[in-house]
Amino acid sequence: MDIISIGECMVEMFCDGRIKDASLFTKAYGGDTLNTIVAASRLGSRTGFITKVGIDPFSDFLTSSWRSEGIDLSHSQLVPGFNSIYFISLTQNGAREFTYYRPGSAASTLSPDDLDADYIGSAKVVHTSGITQAISRTARDAALAAFKMARSAGVLTSFDPNLRLKLTSLEQAKKDLMEILEYTDIFLPSSPDETGPLFPGMTEGEIAEFVMGMGVRFVAIKQGERGCLIASSDGVMQLRPELDVTVVDTTGAGDAFNGAFIHGIAHGLSAREAARLGLTMASLKIRGRGAILSLPTKEELVAALPNDTIRL
């Protein structure tokens, strides 16, 4: 494996206009940690997903879809229960409207007992998120245990705080973040939605300096249309998106960046090169609908960066 991700994937139902007015929904799927490895897989990474899938009418759709992306599911368990569903729409002003049905889902029963240290040790990077921490106490414990296993095996770890205050309190999110940062090599927050609440009063540069002081090796602070701030042993720099695109749907844009950035680090690119991949992946993704359906392929990414020297 190049990248193993740990977390939850949900059934996605998206529509145009307000959810309350919609008569037609398109079925897809999405979840931050799964979106990330789909993006990486489309660039050529060998990926695996650690989760639990409820045996319900959606289970075959989910697992067959993931396999079609080349994702290894040898450590994704089918268990009694249901899979989370979220409904998403785009309103007239371009804002997104979400409705979730997820408490008690199969994925939320993930625990440290579901982890295989040898499998985790086979990867170059292990990735998880604040959402995985927030869906249940046992999932939070699994995320931390996986990072400890990875650290013991010399495997890089990647963490996106992906703060969701509908799932957890800010106080708990801060506590969970500080706990897992001790074992994190790649830190991927978004600004200002996450950096503001989690690091109040600190600039992006100060946040990068702070977490690198805790042992983080690569920082990429995602800034939306402004690009990203990256920090590593090579220093701190600001990068802007290289493509000018018409935004259709920003759902999963940060996950698209994550997948391309982690892919780059896993394959020996510098932080700057990996961030360029991430920004381009995210720019191409936001041209279409859905968290997964609009993710670009490797060929599309290459075409967007003609005559480029980055090794994909």
Plain-language structure description:
The chain is α/β, with parallel strands linked by helices. It has a single domain, classed as UDP-N-acetylmuramoyl-L-alanine:D-glutamate ligase (3-Layer(aba) Sandwich). The chain has 11 helices and 14 strands. The protein has helices at residues 32-42, 59-68, 117-121, 130-134, 137-153, 170-181, 195-198, 204-213, 253-266, 271-285, 298-304, and strands at residues 3-6, 10-16, 26-30, 47-54, 71-72, 76-79, 85-90, 96-101, 125-129, 156-160, 186-187, 218-222, 228-232, 235-239. Strands 1, 4, 5, 6, 9, 10, 11, 12, 13 and 14 form a 10-stranded mixed sheet that branches. The longest helix is centred in the middle third of the chain and has 17 residues, at 137-153. The mean pLDDT is 94.
Summarize it.
With 312 residues, the protein is of the alpha/beta class. The chain contains 11 helices and 14 strands.
List keywords for this structure.
312 residues; UDP-N-acetylmuramoyl-L-alanine:D-glutamate ligase; 4-stranded mixed beta sheet; 11 helices
Total of helices: 11
Helix content: 25-40%
Report the sheet with the most strands, covering strand number, pairing sense and barrel closure: 10 strands, mixed
Order of secondary-structure elements = EEEHEHEEEEHEHHEHEHHEEEHHH
**Rg:** 18 Å
Query: How many beta-strand segments?
Result: 14
Q: Under the CATH scheme, which architecture would be assigned?
A: 3-Layer(aba) Sandwich
Count the domains.
Answer: 1
What structural class is derived from the secondary structure elements?
alpha/beta
Mean pLDDT: 94
Give the class-level CATH name: Alpha Beta
Instruction: Give the overall shape, derived from the CA principal axes.
Output: globular
Strand percentage? 15-25%
Spans where pLDDT lies below 50 across 5 or more residues = none
* Span of the ends, CA to CA: 17 Å
CATH topology grouping: UDP-N-acetylmuramoyl-L-alanine:D-glutamate ligase
The CATH superfamily is Ribokinase
